[in-house]
Amino acid sequence: MALAEETAARRARGGGGAARRAARSAVSFETARFIERNIPNFDILTPEAIEIIEHNAETVLEEIGVNFVENPAALERWRQAGADVQGERVHIPRGLARQLCATAPSRFTQHARNPARNVEIGGKSMVLAPVYGPPFVRDRVAGRRYATMADFEMFVKLGYMSKWLHHSGGTVCEPTDIPVNKRHLDMLYAHMALSDKPFMGSVTEPSRAADSVEMARILFGSDFVDSHCVMTSLVNINSPLTFDSVMMGALEEYAAAGQACIVSPFIVGGAMAPVSVAGTLTQVLAEVLAGIAYSQLIRPGCPMIFGAFVTSIDMNSGAPTFGTPEASQITYGAGQLARRLNLPYRSGGAFTGSKLPDAQGAYESANSLNAALLSGVNFMLHACGWLEGGLVASPEKFVMDADQLGILHKLAEGVPVDDNAQAMGALREVGPGGHFLGCAHTQANYSTAFWRTGLLDYKPYETWSEEGARDTEALASAKVDRMLADYQQPYLDPATDEALRAYMAQKKASMPDAFL
Amino acid sequence: MALAEETAARRARGGGGAARRAARSAVSFETARFIERNIPNFDILTPEAIEIIEHNAETVLEEIGVNFVENPAALERWRQAGADVQGERVHIPRGLARQLCATAPSRFTQHARNPARNVEIGGKSMVLAPVYGPPFVRDRVAGRRYATMADFEMFVKLGYMSKWLHHSGGTVCEPTDIPVNKRHLDMLYAHMALSDKPFMGSVTEPSRAADSVEMARILFGSDFVDSHCVMTSLVNINSPLTFDSVMMGALEEYAAAGQACIVSPFIVGGAMAPVSVAGTLTQVLAEVLAGIAYSQLIRPGCPMIFGAFVTSIDMNSGAPTFGTPEASQITYGAGQLARRLNLPYRSGGAFTGSKLPDAQGAYESANSLNAALLSGVNFMLHACGWLEGGLVASPEKFVMDADQLGILHKLAEGVPVDDNAQAMGALREVGPGGHFLGCAHTQANYSTAFWRTGLLDYKPYETWSEEGARDTEALASAKVDRMLADYQQPYLDPATDEALRAYMAQKKASMPDAFL
């Protein structure tokens, strides 16, 4: 705390200093602005279906209730708010949770240390963040192995340099070579120092959430953090209908500090939820209602995101599956339910069960990404880099998916129909049997007319063969090498850097290593 | 003609014989019914944008006009209908084309020789047909090579055995080992004999279209063909705005025989159409309006499909690109324009520019397939098997894409909210912290609840490694082998078979081989 105050005092007030620091950056890598959708959402649920699911979710909350485990303070807060608390079971009267959720904002800004990279979350926006959580890494050369801090830093660098990623994410992989009770410090520092995009805080212990807030105070200044959202963190619900004290402890820390959380059921349908889309949506809604309502008991007005991480189970093997039609239906449906609550919506991602960045990986990821765009997702975690059901992060898959994210940007722009877009002059100029390549309209528009891949191959077969007949993974591997070779760290004020390092050193020295 | 009459006389009237023949089939392979969408369409164009594009398309037809090349009879028909014909240029007064299109049906049945496999095209239906046109084949073992008749037969067999394909297609690849003026006979015979799904006729010469109708008369009986649609054929417009005499000659044959055609611009945006989505949609609409209007001058009421094969150009290389955001926008927009005309809509497909069935192939195909479903496509050609911008047909890609088509079926069902789907009993039974796998609702529903892949891998990493760490292409290659080993020809009446062979032999003997 002392360090944070000191650093804050040394630097300019608020975000102004960050702007000046960014301007001093020696190298700047282009990052697209977060998406503002100019297209409709795809509403798969009929009004009648929404009514049924909303009614049933309230029934779940009132009749069945939710458990807040090992958290007497939470139970007391619920009792005060008017819930019927029986042991650890909280029965929430019909309508109460929805009413409490109303104080959460429908859209908010998450600030980055480079203000040009601030993101807005909610409404028609869509913010893209990379893979979260894998304990393993697989790359084309070294194969599959436990992830390390060096891998973590590599993914942060790739994220920083990826044009279509707006957010640096959180646990881009688990740095298993760092003690479990200290790695959150290294992870946060990597996001803060190696990137200037917004990032996520730690949720694995309430004390680590507190550390996250402290380090953010050093980076942004305490006053700024007190009055602005600078972190969005992922709080999973222990589905079905259970809120454990670790995750809720993290949420309590963040909410008290005015920092955003994604309150997100983590559901494999058929295992942690009913084996039907409507039943799963009912449970998702009940869980998010309870979780966000609780956050507003901690601090009304604190920004929260309606999360839904839902997949289905392969009934043959028990394995989770991705890119399935049921997952898409749930993604579309949950978006409608989130909008009815006027809450920002998190879902989607480049999900796949594949072990490799092969066709299965791409089909499943593309199915998920397309559904996420049209379902109105505002915050997409896991937007690139997933393999093997989230067990593995892959640098090749990272840049492959990240290239596809450009498609979402262009698609979201909708179809312009201004005079230039109507192109009647071109149609008149060229006429039947002609060719548009050389016409004035094409010459004036060709450089921006169409989205361009930064990865995929359109060369003639013969050229492609001569160049080694490379598949997408091989192209991606080469691109990863180029990006890492080109990487340059964005400028960070040396005093801030030193203060961050000092905080980490002090915290690490204060406790023995733990690996479980 | 004599042969056709004779065969028709020998067999039962109408489609009844086909039903009996199907019942006698020794082996039956499951084929899903064509899709009836129970979900909304995704409308990317605003009402204002539709109005502008429709207005502009009429302007194109009236002011710029379209060319009907080397086709005096067509020019005369247009003159009679009220168009202003100047040389080969047909200026169609505002509103005339739309008015002529009104006699084409909004939905029709294409009959198969097995009536259980009839398809309906239009309204909320979606019919899936395989790859069309590639001169090359690539498989995992033999690599890339010119396609042969043996390849053609292989693809027809794979199509017959693919659960999610409703249609046998047309030129599934070009059998380059057969003379170009005779191969249509072998291709048609393969569809008629090796499959019992509906198929497409030849369009490469008017006389070949006539042969297609004759062979259909042998298969279905002349009376039946005269009063039922038994073929849907692909008539490409020579974009921009040009209707050549070969394609129009084929359309004239089919329309006169009451057989359906897809009237389809073939556009690489930026080359054959303006470099903007709205401009391309304007041209697509103008071209389809003119083509379908013309078909109704031949035979009012003849079934026609509003086609749109549109991709964009890579402005660096000039290569066509697939799975792009612009292609999706055009697919969505053209669907809206087709529905405004109450015409069945053809678009989409498992498009890709990739040389391999790799991640690029899958991303691009999945992007296209998802857009096609939500854009309200009624007939999807190229639904499986594409590589390399349509130059190459791949058996592995065929079964990979065909597996993904199952996802479209399930997604199209929408979200049921009946009592069973609501699953409130399961939620009450399991409660907070429980597990749904063993509950009564899961046990009652698990076998049908979720779509299941017939190809992709969800096994644990260790099992997958022990089994050879196969990628999707390797899994698909093994599946192709299994399918071909299991293939059994559907029963075909020996007299019909003999009559088809006799017709082919007579036609082949009547002309010298041509290879250009």
From TrEMBL, chains A, B:
The keyword Methyltransferase applies. InterPro entries: MttB-like_sf, MTTB_MeTrfase. Signal peptide: none annotated. It comes from the Bacteria. Keywords: Methyltransferase, Transferase. Its EC number is 2.1.1.-. The keyword Cytoplasm does not apply. One of its GO terms (biological process) is methanogenesis. Belongs to the trimethylamine methyltransferase family. This is Methyltransferase. The lineage of its organism: Bacteria, Pseudomonadati, Pseudomonadota, Alphaproteobacteria, Rhodobacterales.
